[in-house]
Design goal:
Length: about 80
């Protein structure tokens, strides 16, 4: 299972799950991400996610197919997590 690390944009506390799938290359578009959620193929923290635009925050793990996405907080300028 490939592990993908995703860093949230600075100043953004979350990313919508469909946009996360697109940003990490798991799917080609946000619409395709919504379809994956609707089909029950996406889980957050081991629980199937049914909300197509669920807010995913730092520390959460999203699984879709064989991809596992670990969401991280943006790092501060000094290299420490924000």
């Amino acid at each position: 299972m490939p592990i993908i690390e995703f860093m949230l944009a600075e100043g953004s506390p979350y990313i919508e799950v469909n946009q996360l799938l697109k940003a990490t290359g798991v799917c080609d578009s946000g619409g395709a991400g919504k379809m994956l959620v609707a089909e029950g193929r996406v889980s957050v923290g081991g629980v199937v996610e049914t909300r197509k635009t669920a807010k995913i925050r730092a520390g959460q793990i999203v699984t879709c197919g064989d991809a596992r996405i670990v969401v991280r907080a943006p790092e501060a300028a000094d290299g420490d997590p924000a």
